[in-house]
């Protein structure tokens, strides 16, 4: 699977993105220069911003606002997190959380009016109700009672982080390498995939909104068209399992979160890789640095919702016996670490 299909389908976008003509004078007349492809960078950035603006939630949710089910879920999770975060600090105030309580009550009323709700919204509603009960118990109690459903003691202390555990984890992380030759005769079970996604769900995300999504394909008829849209998989063999990792844009609110989807999506993707590695399943990240036209085509071919931002593809599976991986030497520690 080379890049021929991409070049055939998106010749103008790719030609402009890789233009090598000399720099031209900036139209603004400020003496600066514009690099080849600057117009394309601006266009592609505008496309990302337009999609974000189309699907994001408003910064504040109120009755009468144009809110999708995803937007309501996003705000339910945001306000629930305000309460659980407030209960997790060293000395929570009593009372606290009046605004969060009012917002959650209003959001639950909005959610109650919806029909055909998905599991994500239903779960967010349940968690919001529990947060309201926990807040009421805290604010009405004579002595501090931290709700065990919302908070728990820190699980890792310096004593528990023994050198042995540290060394085991360090070795686990250091052993990750991209696998480029997979055994096509060893299928990855749905249970193994579910375990990896469970690990990915523990990724940190802004206000616990859990926006990461993963789409899985295990049939060649479905995989080949997706690989044809991606650049960089030439030379990989035996791919029988492919994931497309995305982020649900309706889970974000306000312009200030424009770049947050990439952060949350990257964290989700990395934990998905760890989830596979913990089971002896290798993987190779296939970057999606493609024009908006290619992303639109991928959504169509892969049956991915318009509200999801494409983050990356991930080939995964059991390594072919005798497979080699790169050593990929890293830069010196002093080159990347600065102690201020």
From TrEMBL:
Nitroreductase domain residues: 174-223
UniProt keyword list: Flavoprotein, FMN, Oxidoreductase
InterPro entries registered for this protein in UniProt: Nitroreductase, Nitroreductase-like, Nitroreductase/BluB
One MF annotation (Gene Ontology) recorded for this entry: oxidoreductase activity
Pfam family name, one: Nitroreductase
Domain of life: Bacteria
This protein's record includes keyword Oxidoreductase: yes
Identification of the protein by name: Nitroreductase domain-containing protein
Lineage, uppermost ranks: Bacteria, Bacillati, Actinomycetota, Actinomycetes, Micrococcales
